[in-house]
Amino acid sequence: METDKLKLKRQSLNVWDMLKGEKDDAFMFCDGYKLFLDKSKTEREAAEHITALAEKEGFKSIDHYIDNKLTLKPGDKVYSLYKGKQVVMFKMGRVNPEKGFLMVGSHIDAPRLDLKQSPLYEDGKLSFFKTHYYGGIKKYQWITTPLAIHGTIIKEDGNAIKVSIGEDEKDPVFFITDLLPHLSKDMMVKKLGDAVEGEMLNLLIGSIPFEDKEEKERFKYNILLLLHEKYGIIEEDFTSAELEVVPAGQARDAGMDRSMVGGYGQDDRVCAYTSLKAIFDAENHKKSIFAIFADKEEIGSVGDTSMSSKFFENFVYEILSLTEDKNPDMAIRRSLQNSKFLSADVNAAVDPNFANTHDKYNAVYLGEGVAITKYTGVRGKSSSNDAHAEFMAEIRRLLNKNKILWQVGELGKVDMGGGGTIAFIPAAFGMDVIDCGIGLLSMHSPWEISSKGDIYMLYKAFKAFYESDM
């Protein structure tokens, strides 16, 4: 009996071979994605931008339904914004909620530098802000890089002041200084991870002293004066502020062929944007569908705006209370246990410059489509969800049916390191969960690299999932 060789062996394909007729669509889609990155440098900005786009698409705040005692009907579109940092969106389907939901969950925080609570000081006749890094970074990547300051200052009277300095071409930018090679003998013999210490990540912000020479801290005082003139704040206001230092500048096309996107925060805002667009565009979905945008994943999903908080569960309870179900306490248990959840997060694509970090037979490659990660975790799959083979088969069947290019891959070699996602958190409800995203180069750096073809495939995958019969 002759065997079809093409069916026996799984073929490694390139995303652009499958997108021959859709290249312009993919490029246009990524124009919107780059704009999203530019407007979403922080989790607060991302949440604000997501809700603004949702309202344009006809989504209404859940408070509108609660306050007016309205009942949710098939086709209704609802969202909830929590503490300015977490968003959940919902579209009502035709199937009884107890049959389960289809959910895609991503995170909108990203590695960065946070200003400390008492950040401003002067030294060496210069003014600085002290920072504390957030999430996993390589500290040396942040020095001598143009940086911007984004965030919110809450004054004692409760008034909020938004801050964004360094993005407009007329704005100043900020730098963390480095030592010149001529004097770096001692520094150059240190391990890469030790050469730049956390307490050295001090942001240079000024060099002009206050004109009154009787003032003891002339350089610091001059900065305080400038901040008071622009924002009306005093030094104590820093204690109730969230000011984040991020790379300055817009996301850009990368490569001579413009096939890639270079930009900050693509882990995990690439999944946030693609799932957002997918829930907007999903049609004729039988089951109700969710898009979740969580905070604080980069520090272990802890805190009240993280996926671990009760906000998501409470939102589902509110949704069920707005349906005709008379027993939401039981319905929430059944509906969540019967749900399917895509933990939308990125994976580390193979970089030929560092090829020894991956098992090449079980690795994600840039330009080979959607990345399905059955398990993450550290070494022995610690802190991993490890999806069931049955759900893996469902996802595989869905993607193949919709001609969506996909690949499987682990997060590096077994003992190399590892990492986690939000997958284990929704799995605690008993639902099927699997990690699904794309591969990135230079992940967690100030400028990450993605493939436009992969991004477009991910959008198509999320849309197909929402419209599926799972």
TrEMBL record:
A GO cellular component entry from the record: cytoplasm
Gene3D superfamilies in alphabetical order: Aminopeptidase i, Domain 2 (2.30.250.10), Zn peptidases (3.40.630.10)
Cofactors (names): Zn(2+)
Principal EC category: hydrolase
SUPFAM superfamilies listed in its UniProt record: Aminopeptidase/glucanase lid domain, Zn-dependent exopeptidases
Pfam families hit by this protein: Peptidase_M18
Superkingdom of the source species: Bacteria
The enzyme's E.C. designation: 3.4.11.-
GO biological process, one term: proteolysis
Keyword Hydrolase belongs to the record: yes
Keywords: Aminopeptidase, Hydrolase, Metal-binding, Metalloprotease, Protease, Zinc
GO molecular function: aminopeptidase activity; metallopeptidase activity; zinc ion binding
InterPro entries (alphabetical): Peptidase_M18, Peptidase_M18_dom2
Family under the similarity heading: Belongs to the peptidase M18 family.
Protein's UniProt name: M18 family aminopeptidase
Organism annotation: Alkalibacter saccharofermentans DSM 14828
